[in-house]
Design brief:
The protein is built from 11 helices and 13 strands. By secondary structure, the protein is α+β, with helices and mostly antiparallel strands.
Length: 385
């Protein structure tokens, strides 16, 4: 700010001061000042300088909020029969056979045959029927051509091999059946469950090719678990899971059901009256006055004249639980809960009994005995059951 005056303070006629604002204040409204100057004024004759306003760089556009990809329209029954092809190679995968709502998203069942370029063609004959489960999601369903009745898919890695593995296991199950008979007296034989043949047994039977297919399908344990066959060995960490131990205990108890036959009515009558006995100790023989006469007392019907008796009645006895049943016992079964592979073991309440240490060791189940001791002992496992 500058003070204006002709010859200093002595020539000023008033106490008012004219202050020259700085260049930055030119053109702005006067501001009140605490001193005696009444206002801020521009000096006449001075050149006013105006500052150009700064140009602000244009701000970048706001990013659009992320939105998930729009799912394809829900499948309709009209899609049944559509040809399913690979969007990348154009190879036909099969045709839509059925639709399933599913838990999270709909599923398509696609049925076809193995092609020449399929990953499992070296394991399965060309043209083997296969079945694929395809989720109806935007990352897989690339395009739906209703005019040409074609469904193009972006196949994720492993989807084709998963369907062909199911066909491979079905083929192995049919070819392994003659060699999967369990040994007599084993729990698998009592439960009517097949046993997985070893590689040495297959090679000795002249089926080295079948042993090679088993190895390519995942090995002895994988194939046995997929086909429901009893395996000789358990995978590493098998006994760490309490559910596996519970299933093995249930199978052990169920394998100890034994059927016994009761004598028929004719045998009961013969034993009661001494028919066919040479000791003469029957009551009728004593009543006739002689102990050496093996004939039945008077009035006893001739067994040869009687109508044919029904077959002997039988009953079932469990050597672990001590339970007796007139009907065939109900064996434990696995019930699937959902599509994710979860299962629950269903067995009669009367058969949920903890076997004793003597039962397991007498049967040679040292592996099951080790699992019980690893999980806390017989008392702790029995309380958990």
């Amino acid at each position: 700010m500058q003070m204006l005056g002709r010859a200093g303070w002595s020539h000023c006629r008033s106490t008012s001061l004219l202050l020259c604002p700085s260049r930055a204040m030119v053109g702005r409204a006067p501001l009140a000042h605490p001193h005696s100057a009444s206002a801020l004024q521009a000096v006449p004759g001075r050149r006013h300088h105006h500052h150009r306003p700064r140009r602000r760089s244009p701000s970048p556009p706001a990013p659009k909020p992320w939105s998930p990809p729009q799912p394809p329209p829900p499948p309709t029954p009209d899609l049944i029969g559509y040809t399913v092809t690979c969007a990348e190679t154009g190879e036909a995968l099969g045709s839509v056979h059925s639709l399933h709502p599913g838990q999270g998203q709909p599923m398509l069942t696609v049925r076809g045959v193995t092609g020449a370029s399929a990953a499992a063609s070296r394991l399965l004959p060309h043209g083997t029927p296969v079945e694929h489960l395809v989720p109806w999601v935007p990352s897989i369903v690339a395009r739906v051509d209703h005019a040409g009745r074609v469904l193009r898919l972006d196949l994720p890695p492993g989807l084709r091999e998963l369907g062909e593995r199911g066909a491979l296991l079905a083929t192995l199950g049919a070819q392994l059946a003659p060699y999967a008979a369990p040994r007599a007296g084993t729990p698998a034989a009592r439960l009517g469950r097949g046993a997985m043949p070893t590689r040495a047994a297959l090679v000795a039977a002249g089926r080295a090719d079948l042993a090679h297919l088993v190895r390519l399908a995942g090995g002895q344990l994988e194939v046995a678990a997929a086909l429901g066959l009893a395996a000789c060995r358990r995978p590493a960490g098998y006994w760490d899971c309490a559910d596996n131990m519970q299933r093995e205990l249930a199978a052990f108890v169920a394998a100890h059901w034994t059927r016994f036959e009761e004598p028929g009515e004719a045998e009961v009558g013969e034993e009661r009256w001494g028919v066919g006995r040479g000791d003469g100790g029957g009551e009728g023989a004593r009543g006739m006055g002689g102990g050496d006469d093996p004939r039945p007392p008077p009035g006893t019907p001739d067994p040869a004249a009687l109508p044919p008796q029904p077959s002997k009645a039988g009953y079932w006895y469990n050597q672990v639980t001590g339970r007796v049943s007139r009907e065939a016992p109900e064996l434990p079964t696995l019930i699937a809960l959902a599509d994710d592979g979860s299962e629950v073991l269903a067995e009669p309440r009367e058969d949920v009994v903890m076997p004793s240490r003597g039962h397991l060791l007498a049967a040679g189940r040292y592996d099951l005995h080790y699992a019980v001791t690893m999980h806390g002992g017989y008392r702790a496992v029995g309380a958990a059951l």
